[in-house]
Amino acid sequence: MSSNERVRVRGVTVHRPIIYGNTATVLTPEEKALLTFPDHTHRWTVAVRSATSAADSDIVGDADDLGYFIKRVAFKLHDTYPNPTRNIDKPPFEVSETGWGEFEIQIRITFIPESGEKAITFYHHLKLHPWTLSGDPEIPPLETAIALGPVHSWQYDEIVFNDPFQSFLNVLTAHPPTPLPKTKRRPVPFHTSNPGSLEASKGGVPEFTAAMEKEEAERLETARKSVIEQQDKWRRTLIEREKELERLKRELTGS
User: Fold this and answer.
1) Same domain, 118 and 128
2) Residues 189, 215 within the same domain
3) Is there a cis peptide before residue 91, judged by omega within 30 degrees of 0?
4) 86 CB-contact burial (10 Å; exposed 0-12 / middle 13-18 / buried 19+)
5) Residue 58: CB partners within 8 Å, gap ≥ 6?
6) What is the pLDDT along the chain (255 residues), one digit of tens a residue?
7) Spatial CA neighbour of 131 closest among 180, 82, 77, 190
8) Same domain, yes or no, for 152 and 109?
9) Same-domain status, 182 and 229
10) For residue 92, what are the CA distances in angstroms to 49, 157, 168?
11) Where are the extended beta strands (E) located within 82-234?
12) To bridge 76 with a disulfide, which of 20, 106, 133, 155 should be the other Cys (CB 3.0-4.6 Å)?
């Protein structure tokens, strides 16, 4: 690698849309009979994938191979699982298991050496049960759960690379992401921000769209502004309290 390739390209920002989350299905009595742990109720898969879904596939996301910029994804499962940290060094970046309970999974993404980027970490709450209209998870009877089909829980995000090395920028430029569809192409709508919707309770295969990406960006901007407003509010409160403290100190000293 030449020295020029190790120079950061200032003022350049590159985004790569991804999704992370899980899908889960209820085990039938026949499947449970074959398990080492008969108390397990679900088979689930947790994954990191490209955000766009292939038009002819029933897999959520995964239209693009992320191996060109991701070196490894480490999934930290519950400690009750054998070898709870699962390192996946090539696509598909996913882990499949069976279990009976929901828990938080740590997802650590390491990038290829050429990137010069630090690893990033996400957290995902494994979801096994469908949402009710109130927005709470519901554990339905076995027959109902099987009829509903897979439960999906996915989060859209964008990995942002600021001022990338020239060599890494060349890699990213050579692998543009497949654009998200402008509108849904599947009959079952899906939206992680509205789990209590009728559509989200019906099962089916979800799909992220450009419209949802826009909504997510707007929600993030609203949240950012709210954080700034709260920071300003507490800063003003702190200044007022410090002034009050100084006043009380002067009164105590009689100055």
Assistant:
1) yes
2) no
3) no
4) middle
5) 205
6) 555 667 999 999 999 999 999 999 999 889 988 888 889 999 999 999 999 988 888 888 999 999 999 999 999 999 999 999 999 999 999 999 999 999 999 999 999 999 999 999 999 999 998 765 555 566 777 777 777 778 888 999 999 999 999 999 999 999 999 998 887 766 443 433 344 343 443 445 777 787 777 777 777 778 888 888 899 899 999 999 999 898 888 888 876
7) 190
8) yes
9) no
10) 8, 18, 21
11) 85-88, 93-99, 104-111, 120-125, 151-162
12) 106
Rounded to the nearest angstrom, the gap between the alpha carbon of residue 158 and the centroid of all alpha carbons in its chain is 9
CATH number of the domain at 161, please.
2.60.40.1970
Verdict on whether the full-model pTM lies above 0.85: no
DSSP, collapsed to helix, strand or coil, labels residue 127 as: coil
Domain count, the chain: 2
Both 187 and 222 in one domain: the answer is: no
Residues 137 and 232 in one domain: no
Domain boundary among 185, 208, 231: 208
The DSSP secondary-structure symbol of 115 reads G
Are 101 and 216 members of one domain?
no
Provide the residue range defining the domain that includes 252: 209-255
In angstroms, the Cα distances linking 78 to 99, 101, 157, 216, 217 are 10, 10, 24, 29, 32
Question: In whole angstroms, what is the distance from residue 22 CA to residue 67 CA?
Answer: 19
Residue 23 Rama label (left phi>0; alpha psi -120 to 50; beta): beta
Closest CA relative to residue 168, chosen from 96, 116, 131, 122 = 116
Separation CA 9–CA 176 (nearest Å): 18
Tokens, residue 43: 């088979």
Residue type, 152: H
Q: Are residues 213 and 203 in the same domain?
A: no
Place of tokens 């003022």: 11
